Fold each of these.
Amino acid sequence: MFDFILNCILWSFAIYGIIDIAKSIKSCWIHKRIENNGIFIIIATKNQEFQIEGFMRSVMFKVLYGKNEYIKRIIVTDLNSQDSTKEIIKKLSEDYQEIKYEEWEVCKKKLDKYNIEL
């Protein structure tokens, strides 16, 4: 009788393990599919040298340590700032691979390809 109970417990753990492995494989497949597309965020700034670094670091904290793992790239563009906003953005893009700096004209041309109005 003891052998029967022990076998039932072991088989229950084995079946649970197989189901858990199947769920892990399925979630990896779905995650890869989402990762290929991803979400892109475009942030336009102008004369924000005192706020941009804190804002971008808080966004990156949420992306890296939060529930926003589907965000693939954050594109930051500068609208002809008269301060050092552009340099701060470029420095942050070197620190974080998810942040990319683009000139406004280049970003606008990419958006025009998709007929997106701002």
Note: The CA atoms of residues 5 and 117 lie 67 Å apart.
Amino acid sequence: MTPELVRRMSAPVPRYTSYPTAPHFSPKVGPVEFSEGLRNLSPSQALSLYVHIPFCAQLCWYCGCNTKATRNSDTIETYLQHLLTEILMVAAVVPGARPLGHIHWGGGSPNSLSADQIRRLAETLHTSFAMGADTEFAVEIDPRWLDQDQIKAFAAAGVNRASVGVQDFNPQVQSAINRVQSVEMTERAVNGMREAGVKGVNIDLVYGLPHQTEESVANTIEEVIRLAPDRIALFGYAHLPSRAKHQSMIDETTLPGTMERYRQSRRAEHLLIEAGYVTVGLDHFARPDDALASGEIKRNFQGYTTDKADALIGVGASSISQLPTGYYQNAVPRADYERRVSDTGLATVRGILLSDDDKMRASVIERLMCEFEFSKSSLRSVFGDLAKPVIDKAEELVAADEEGLVERTADGFRVTELGQPFVRAIASCFDAYLGKGNSTFSAGV
């Protein structure tokens, strides 16, 4: 792989956890449109739910999430009260049985909630939606602040998958990102969740962090393999201090260059495959017997998922709902979110209603991100003549390709094994919104 090609394909592009992407949401879409989208859901339609907890006990300097560092119990309790109100309001609008296939608590750190708060939040969800034995219930965990009472509360709530944040185990890297977390601390959290009955464990890693090298990444991977998680997410660090001000605490001169980032990601992938993990899409790995490795996958705001529901409801500050009619985002600042919930029960401030062209391009980009290919006949059967510009673009890309990154198939378009690390850049060629506005994105590799 030549440095020139890697640099060219590493130009900033969206991560494509949605299409259209969030920078193109409009304030013209608000709670009225969101309510209408909820009411239009089928009464028996399977749903997914995302719950955002925007608090951490300590802010990590690499983080790009919508979160605030606080240990003030009153602040957290006030937010929880508004969150419970929003959940009840949303549930009242959704018609029918409201069955949940997947639940995901993210943040921030959901274990910034006390054990009692975890129980109250879970009880409200159980009374507001239909949850069964097959519901996947995942929660993100920060091992540094996890105690035994919280573990018991999560397990009692029905949590059956824990996503454990690690990022990197190298002490110099941890110091540079303000996240000091030992292997032993992480292992206690993993073992504690498993002993409580939470069988599924994911571990989140990041490459491209300050002071990281191929060797330090490899050492972290070896420790993670020893912990034997079911799934591993390996994200490239997105250094965007203009958007996440606390990232300015990171010394940019210590960040690895483009080729070093690329080598780190390839080394990690090689080690994980060697250890028996299966690659899933761009940056996820799973054990061969895990559902993520053996079935059809989709991509949403939490990354790759087995969730088949086509309606994802987001509650909490900054959360985004993905409905058949469009995307709807809540107010990001906590105070604004709480005020809007107090006023109307809903906190939607912007979004986008999907056109047929949006849906068609979203389908293509998701298939590329998940399977690295799409079928022309399938696209035509669903979208008819609307598919022609995308199919023409695919033909143009194949004709112009000199490096062997893409190719024709008997019925469509495929990203080759050589091109797969650059699938975000390739998918961006089908993005009709890219280049419109002043959006900033992370490096493509």
Note: The chain has a mean pLDDT of 94.
Amino acid sequence: MRKRISTILRYPVGMLLFITAAAASSRGQTVLSFGLFLFLCFFEAAVLYSERKALLDLRLLLTVSWLGGISLSCLKLSHLQSVWGIRMWVSVFLFYFSALLVNDLISGAFRRAEEISPEPRGLALSGTPEQYRKKLMSCILVIFAAGFLSFAAECIVFRGELPILSDKPHAYTAFHITGIHYFIVSMMFVPVLSVLYLFSGKTTVREKLVLSALSGCIFLIYVLMLSKLQILFTAALPAMTALLLQRRFKTRTLALFFLGVFLVFAAGVILLMSMRHYPEGYLEKIFQFRDSKTPAAFQYVYTYIVNNFENLNLLTENLQHYSFGIRQLFPLFALTGAKFLPPVASLLSVEQYLTIEELTTLTVLYDAYGDFGVTGTLLFGVLFGAFTGYAEALLRKRNTAAVLLYVQLAVYAALAFFTTWFSNPTTWFWFAVTVFIVMRLSADGDGFKECLRRTWEAFLPGRLREKRKEKHI
């Protein structure tokens, strides 16, 4: 009864707290607004966790990322920050609560209709467990080979001038060849597939050594490229996969695990900062903290989170003309090569509003607002909630398609403050790689048509799949 009451009160209480905190922030009451948003973050997280008892609940990850980022932004510790306008507040409000509401409606409807698979017995999509493992290993080797050869090609083209050896702070952005760089960043699937392989049956010492060597090589490549995001994916995705498949962890164990991952990642970020050859005083000049004595590591993490919201606020205050879908359709133009055509290139030349040239990350809402304004943020929240709700319903089958899709969305939800994931071509290339993997695992030697059918059904929650079978009968 108490759980039901807290769930019912979550929306009105949450909305009221949000509006109160936003009003306090608009009046310059930084500490009060920070405290209110932080309380709201803990309140929402506690209620959401009590409902599903899952630390990887997509709503929970979005809450910590979104409300946590907003609460930090209220402190206004940097000169780069300003008081947010009404359109900014309405946008972040509508996105968050619409995403949660739609997620609740969709995932809740499926939850009442079917039971979750108790263990990862549904990983295999076709054939025997031995056939599944062979096909899974072939996916691992193909993805690794494509990425490694692409990395070797970039090294040859750039004559071995790896970002880690460069004296330029932003060498990574120049170290890529259009097209083949997608295969390098897609090597992050190898550690995830390795975890699936380990969970699919007994594994020999030799197999474990091979999988460890491949994953270690990929991690080393991303270190050589000084890519913080790829290092995060390489560490977070297999960890999340293991947690999804292993259901016997205690809550305290999970909390300590995530704390450990965060500390390791934070240490890695600080290490990479020291290796990026920033000139003395460069970061302090970029971050523009009001208190110059603030530790550089804190300045980096704080700015890494809050400046993305500031870029979004600048857009809401200065944008004169909406782009009506052009920004969010960029992956289509990029992956088809149409972006190189002069008419399309001129169409894509939309203005970016940034607090400072070096800080280019934008939050997940940036392009949605740029296309349709406040209405766009509401629609994006609805779509995001529907997508995540569908993924949570799909995860109840515990098959490979569900796990691969879910862990990607988990990272996107946990880093909603960071960038425009769904108008990034790499995100959709990763989704395409996911479909390729599922197709390979669904192939059973009985024709391409049957393979496509099994692939399609792999991405259907159990309830929809049963309805589809009844319709054909």
Note: The longest helix spans residues 129-157.
